Amino acid sequence: MTTLDDLPLRDDLRGRSPYGAPQAPVPVALNVNENTHGIPEVVAHDIVGSVAASIMGLNRYPDREFSELRRDFAAYLGHGLREENIWAANGSNEVLQQILLAFGGPGRTFLGFTPTYSMYPLLATGTSTRWIGRNRQDDFELSADYVSRVIGEESPDIVVLCSPNNPTGTPLTLDTVRAAYEASPGIVIVDEAYAEFSDPGTPSALELLPGRSRLIVSRTMSKAFAFAGARVGYLAADPAIADALRLVRLPYHLSALTQAAARAALRHSDAMLAVVDDIRTQRNRISRQLAALGYRPYRSGSNFVFFGGVDDTHATFRRLFDRGILIRDVGIDGHMRVTAGTETETTAFLDAMAALRS
Ligand code: PMP
């Protein structure tokens, strides 16, 4: 049998592991921060109609500039953004990859504050960019002073600030983002994949875009929009950033089917986001009840809770799995992460955790 070692693989990929969150058909999957509520039926029908209407045109390549979709994203985000400020790709993972292809690469560096989203170092490897992971502060927080100091020390080509941060849930203040931008010589990405779950009134880094041409705010339809399977991520930035990404994207990278589905979903953004309040309620319930059971949940502005105080993460994972519940062991000693599901799913998780304690 041929193994990877037999192939003429790039030296810097040897010994690396791919992204590998378990995918198992369990009744209660709370391990990849999806919106577990599913798509409202009326919205699903409209999406089907829009996708069906695009099918007769599939003999032609799709709009390479996905202009209408960009206009729709600009309208959704507000903040005075226009079509030319928006870019999109097949999930925000691809958006981030395109940013690294354009602004990273051999001899360049990409800095993030760990623990953070596990794809960042993998995207760095794939684009031959050197990843620099610097620790977060106590309780996984990041102050403006600390971020400025670290960026000053490392002088990275690209910085990523994940807010709220995956896997810890920690939101950042705009002061921290401003400080990162001022200290940074290069591109600053604020990954707001989970922004819609932040408590009402929490400001977005979108506010900081005017006058900051090196700042990029990345978003996705995979989380609050319950659209992970459609693979649609996007960003807002100075129009020159889109010009840079056009140099590295594959032509026609967003299929006509994807564009039609995303536009239909955006037409129903109120209905698609109607469950966000309920998810926040379940998140807060998880935090309260885990604390009551003696675990240590960290503050979360997201749709998941990161908690410490787990004696044996492998055993906890396994015992929950045996009850049909999947949560995430992120490889940090004594800590685990769980996504807030529907009320029923959340109850199943909390009951199982209580049973483990008794
Ligand atoms: N950023 C963060 C912080 C994430 O947690 C995720 C998904 N887990 C992504 C980006 C990528 O999401 P997608 O490619 O589905 O948009």
From TrEMBL:
Protein EC: 2.6.1.9
Catalytic activity: L-histidinol phosphate + 2-oxoglutarate = 3-(imidazol-4-yl)-2-oxopropyl phosphate + L-glutamate
Stretches the record annotates as Disordered: 1-22
InterPro entries: Aminotrans_II_pyridoxalP_BS, Aminotransferase_I/II_large, HisP_aminotrans, PyrdxlP-dep_Trfase, PyrdxlP-dep_Trfase_major, PyrdxlP-dep_Trfase_small
A GO molecular function held by the record: histidinol-phosphate transaminase activity
Domain Aminotransferase class I/classII large positions: 28-352
Functional pathway: Amino-acid biosynthesis; L-histidine biosynthesis; L-histidine from 5-phospho-alpha-D-ribose 1-diphosphate: step 7/9
Keywords: Amino-acid biosynthesis, Aminotransferase, Histidine biosynthesis, Pyridoxal phosphate, Transferase
Cofactor(s), by name: pyridoxal 5'-phosphate
Record-listed N6-(pyridoxal phosphate)lysine modification sites: K223
Transferase in keyword set: yes
Residue stretches spanning the membrane: none
Domain of life, per lineage: Bacteria
PROSITE patterns in UniProt: AA_TRANSFER_CLASS_2
Entry keyword annotation includes Transcription regulation: no
Family of this protein: Belongs to the class-II pyridoxal-phosphate-dependent aminotransferase family. Histidinol-phosphate aminotransferase subfamily.
PANTHER family: HISTIDINOL-PHOSPHATE AMINOTRANSFERASE, HISTIDINOL-PHOSPHATE AMINOTRANSFERASE-RELATED
Description of how the protein assembles with itself and partners: Homodimer.
Protein name: Histidinol-phosphate aminotransferase
Gene: hisC
